[in-house]
Design goal:
Blueprint lengths: L5 H7 L8 E5 L6 H14 L7 E5 L11 H11 L6 E6 L7 H11 L2 E7 L3 H4 L1 H5 L4 E5 L5 H10 L8 H8 L11 H21 L7 H13 L7 H9 L11 H13 L3 E8 L4 E11 L2 H5 L11 H13 L3 E6 L4 E8 L2 E7 L6 H9 L10 E5 L11 E4 H5 L9
Parallel strand pairs: 1-4, 1-5, 2-3, 3-4, 6-8, 10-11, 11-12
Antiparallel strand pairs: 6-7, 8-9, 9-10
Helix pairs in contact: 3-4, 10-12
Length: 409
């Protein structure tokens, strides 16, 4: 039982019969395979002959023998019986050696619409991109966002109350985690997902990586997701004599590990937007976890009041909705996010609760140095509208549920 993931289907649907390779990427267990199944169901409902749909899940033992591009080529060719269009679905394609050669061949010689999924962003940065430059379209799939999570909870008969936001902030949106009743079971499941990704997609593919060192750095980065990034601070932390888990590590290694974390979708790396200069800087300011549950299992203390968990789900929500998102820099400090879409933008501050005058002034005053007329928005969990002086206040839950959208100009 699974919700229809219309958030993604609405983006992919227009490409069903367009001559581009549809590439679905994202962290393992986010639901990419289910989305492929939903696309197949839609095609069947439009009258596509089932014999013209070829679907292979390369993590299914039935297809374990297809390990090379030539084996894949032979299998697909054996299924194509006429000149009519075929729909080819290749799930977790990274398990096939030189898969990109077979895909390039299918595209050049067969009448087929091709869909592929993978759990490593290298899928588009390697030979596939080289061989098929300009002929792919990518869709990054996240675990359930907050609205999908609430819809799924209702679908399986679970209660959703006003405190569910805190459950989501802590344990995130991996679809299968909602089938567990206790926090212990959820944590165990997320630990298994996390360890499995490190084992299969990091250590198995990168023999030069030291397991303990990578896991230590990875855990540190995820535990500090949303905080300003400094490779120097990380090296100092792990190299200090006072740290009982002392690890000798340099900045080059840290950046290498960050790249690996990004490729398996543990994190998103966020650049800075110079608000005064109206330019995007190359500096990587922050990392956000692809799912708050992954952060939680790497954090000793979950403190929602520090806003980093809230910032994380707002960042992910904006990305899922198609915004470009940056941290904002002014001459006096920073604004949490600059969100851009369709050549328009807005500025966003995220707060837990605006509990007193001092908190309100701090969050609203962050916009004071900004002379840009684009909308300025404070998002918090408060249910009372505290908008004033042209600055818009929105409730976070209402925003996440899609009850309100961001104004842009």
């Amino acid at each position: 039982m699974l919700i229809i993931r219309e958030l993604y289907l609405s983006k992919i649907r227009k490409y069903y019969d367009i001559d581009l390779i549809k590439v679905l990427t994202g962290i393992r267990r986010a639901g990419k395979s289910r989305i492929l199944e939903q696309i197949i169901d839609e095609l069947k409902n439009t009258g596509i002959d089932e014999n013209h749909i070829i679907a292979i899940n390369f993590e299914d033992m039935d297809y374990e023998y297809i390990k090379t591009s030539s084996k894949l080529n032979d299998y697909v060719k054996s299924k194509i019986k006429d000149d009519n269009k075929y729909y080819l679905f290749l799930d977790e394609i990274q398990h096939v050696k030189d898969f990109e050669k077979a895909i390039a061949s299918f595209k050049a010689t067969k009448n087929c619409s091709i869909f592929v999924t993978g759990s490593n962003s290298k899928l588009l940065s390697g030979e596939l991109a080289t061989l098929l430059v300009g002929r792919t379209v990518e869709f990054e799939i996240f675990p359930f966002n907050y609205k999908e999570a609430t819809d799924y909870m209702k679908l399986i008969g679970r209660e959703v109350d006003q405190d569910f936001i805190f459950d989501y902030l802590k344990w995130g949106g991996f679809p299968q985690r909602f089938n567990f009743g206790s926090e212990h079971e959820i944590k165990q499941y997320l630990d298994n997902v996390y360890d499995g990704i490190i084992s299969k997609d990091i250590l198995k593919r990168n023999s030069d990586i030291e397991e303990y060192k990578f896991k230590s750095i990875c855990s540190y980065v995820l535990a500090n997701a949303g905080k300003e990034f400094s490779a120097a601070n990380i090296t100092n932390y792990f190299n200090t004599i006072n740290n009982r888990n002392k690890i000798e590590i340099d900045k080059k290694t840290i950046y290498n590990y960050l790249e690996k974390m990004e490729k398996v979708y543990f994190i998103s790396r966020v650049k800075r937007f110079n608000i005064v200069g109206k330019e995007i800087l190359k500096t990587i300011e922050k990392q956000y976890a692809i799912d708050p549950g992954i952060r939680t299992i790497n954090t000793n203390l979950v403190n929602f009041e520090d806003t980093f968990f809230l910032e994380n789900i707002i960042y992910n929500e904006l990305i899922v909705r198609g915004y470009e998102v940056y941290t904002g820099k002014t001459y006096k400090g920073e604004v949490d996010f600059v969100a851009l879409k369709d050549m328009k933008k807005c500025f966003i501050q995220v707060s837990y609760y605006l509990i007193n005058k001092g908190t309100i002034e701090r969050e609203f005053d962050a916009f004071t140095p900004i002379k840009d007329a684009s909308p300025k928005i404070v998002l918090s969990l408060d249910k009372v509208d505290l908008s004033h002086d042209g600055i818009i206040h929105m409730n976070i839950v209402d925003f996440l549920l899609g009850n309100i959208d961001l104004p842009l100009s």
